[in-house]
TrEMBL record:
The chain crosses the membrane at residues 21-39, 73-90, 102-120, 126-141, 148-170, 213-235, 247-265, 277-299, 320-339, 345-368. The lineage of its organism: Bacteria, Pseudomonadati, Bacteroidota, Cytophagia, Cytophagales. It holds the Pfam family DUF418. This is DUF418 domain-containing protein. Keywords: Membrane, Transmembrane, Transmembrane helix. Signal peptide: none annotated. It comes from the Bacteria. InterPro entries: Bact_Transport_Assoc, DUF418. The keyword Transport does not apply. Residues 228-390 form the DUF418 domain. PANTHER family: INNER MEMBRANE PROTEIN (PTHR30590).
Length: 402
C-alpha cells in the first residue's frame, strides 16, 4: 500500500509535536470524563462541608461534561492510537523488519499492561481494547487507503449503532450481578473486596453486555486515525483545510446536538422506541463528528504561532501518554477511593470540587511530564513497553506511545 503522503521524512525526524500536544490535551478530557463522584451528595450539600459547588452548579457541570467531554476525548485518543499505528508501519518498512511479528508482540505486551491495570486497579481500562483492536489491525494494514476510510466509518458509526440497538432488542444489557455493588467499589476499605467487585463488573468479564460495542467503535476510531496517518494529515494539515472546515462546521452544530441527544437517552429523558431507534445512528455519527471538530480546531490553533506556544505545554504530557493515563488511576485511588486509606474524598466533596481536584492532578502531571522529558526520551512505562516489544528487533527511533 502506498500512502498519499511520503512519511519517510517524518520517520527520520523528531516526532510531530502537534500530535503529542493533541494527545496530551486529550488526556485532560479523559481525566475529567473518568472522574469518580457520588450521585448522592445530599448530605454534603446540607452539612455546609462544601467550599464550592451546589446541586444546581454540579448538575450544570455534569451536563456540560456530557455535551462537550464525555466520549469525545477518548475518541480523539483512540484516533491518535491509530495514527501511531501508521507510523509504526512505516518505521518497520524503513528498517525492513517483519512488521506483523513485531506489532503482535507489541500489542500482546500492551494487553498485559492493560490487564494488570484493569484487574488490579480499575475496571475502566481502555488499553486492553486498544491491544485487541491492534491485533485485528495487523490483518488490514496493507489495504488501500479508501477502503481503510470506509471500513473505519462503517465500524465507527452504523455498526456501532447497530450493536447498541441489538443489545437492547435482545436484552443483552442485563447484568448477571447486582449493579448496586458498583457504588460499594468506591467505599470498601478491603482491597480484597475491591478486587472482587472490580473483577465482577469488568467489561471483559461481562463481554456480551459491554465489550462488542466498545470493540466495534474503538476499531472504527483507530482505523480513522490510521487513515489520517496514511494521508499525511498531521504532517501537512494545510492540504486539508476544506476538510477541516467541514469538520468544524458540522461538528460544532450537528455534533453537539447529537451529544445532547446522547445525554437525553443515557439520563432517561428520551425513550427510544421502534419509531425513534434510528436516532442512534445520528447520535453516534454526531459523536464522531464532534471529535473530528476538536481535532480540526486544535490543528487550526496550532497554526497560530502565539497559540502554538501555549499549546506546547501539552507536548511532554502526550509524549508519555500511557504513563500519564495509568497515573491518573493512581491519583484517583489515593484521593477518592477508600481501600488505599488515602484522603477518601468520594462522597465527601461536591462535583465542582471534584473537578477542581482533577484539574490540580492534571497540572501535577504537566509539571512531572516536563521534568521527566528533560531527562529522558520516553515515559517510564513507555520505556518498559518499548524494551519488551523490541526484544530481538534492531534498535529503532523513539516510538509513539499510542
Amino acid at each position: 500500500m502506498k500512502p498519499y503522503f511520503n512519511s519517510q521524512a517524518l520517520i527520520q525526524s523528531t516526532r510531530l509535536e502537534m500530535v503529542d500536544a493533541l494527545r496530551g490535551f486529550a488526556l485532560l478530557g479523559i481525566i475529567l470524563a473518568n472522574i469518580p463522584y457520588s450521585h448522592d451528595l445530599t448530605e454534603v450539600y446540607t452539612s455546609n462541608r462544601s467550599i464550592l459547588g451546589s446541586a444546581y452548579w454540579d448538575n450544570l457541570l455534569k451536563t456540560a461534561t456530557a455535551f462537550f467531554i464525555d466520549k469525545k476525548f477518548i475518541t480523539v485518543f483512540s484516533m491518535l492510537f491509530g495514527f501511531g499505528f501508521s507510523i509504526q508501519v512505516d518505521r518497520m518498512a524503513e528498517k525492513n523488519t517483519d512488521f506483523r511479528k513485531y506489532f503482535i508482540r507489541r500489542m500482546l505486551w500492551l494487553l498485559l499492561i492493560g490487564c494488570i491495570h484493569g484487574y488490579l486497579l480499575w475496571f475502566g481500562d481502555i488499553t486492553r481494547d486498544y491491544a485487541i483492536c491492534g491485533l485485528l489491525l495487523v490483518l488490514i494494514y496493507k489495504w488501500p487507503i479508501r477502503r481503510i476510510l470506509w471500513v473505519g466509518l462503517l465500524l465507527a458509526i452504523p455498526l456501532t449503532a447497530l450493536v447498541f440497538i441489538l443489545n437492547a432488542a435482545l436484552n443483552l444489557q442485563e447484568y448477571t450481578y447486582d449493579v448496586s455493588i458498583v457504588q460499594e467499589l468506591y467505599i470498601t476499605e478491603s482491597y480484597w473486596r475491591y478486587l472482587t467487585i472490580n473483577f465482577t463488573i469488568d467489561p471483559l468479564v461481562n463481554f456480551i453486555q459491554d465489550s462488542p460495542i466498545t470493540l466495534v467503535f474503538c476499531s472504527g476510531q483507530i482505523l480513522l486515525g490510521f487513515w489520517l496517518g496514511r494521508i499525511g494529515f498531521f504532517a501537512t494539515p494545510q492540504l486539508f483545510r476544506s476538510m477541516i472546515n467541514k469538520w468544524i462546521l458540522f461538528g460544532s452544530t450537528f455534533g453537539i446536538l447529537s451529544s445532547v441527544g446522547f445525554w437525553a437517552v443515557t439520563t432517561g429523558r428520551l425513550e427510544l422506541d421502534g419509531a425513534s431507534v434510528g436516532l442512534i445512528f445520528l447520535i453516534v455519527g454526531g459523536l464522531v463528528l464532534q471529535s473530528l471538530c476538536y481535532i480540526g480546531l486544535f490543528v487550526k490553533a496550532w497554526e497560530n504561532s502565539r497559540l502554538q506556544n501555549i499549546l506546547k505545554i501539552f507536548v511532554p504530557v502526550g509524549r508519555m501518554a500511557l504513563t500519564n493515563y495509568l497515573m491518573q488511576t493512581i491519583f484517583y485511588l489515593l484521593l477518592f477511593f477508600h481501600w488505599p486509606h488515602g484522603l477518601q474524598l468520594y462522597g465527601k466533596v461536591t462535583i465542582t470540587e471534584t473537578y477542581l481536584i482533577a484539574m490540580a492532578v492534571y497540572t501535577l502531571q504537566v509539571l512531572y511530564s516536563h521534568w521527566w522529558m528533560k531527562h529522558f526520551s520516553q515515559g517510564p512505562v513507555e520505556m518498559l513497553w518499548r524494551k519488551l516489544a523490541y526484544q530481538g528487533v534492531p534498535a529503532q527511533p523513539t516510538t509513539q506511545p499510542y
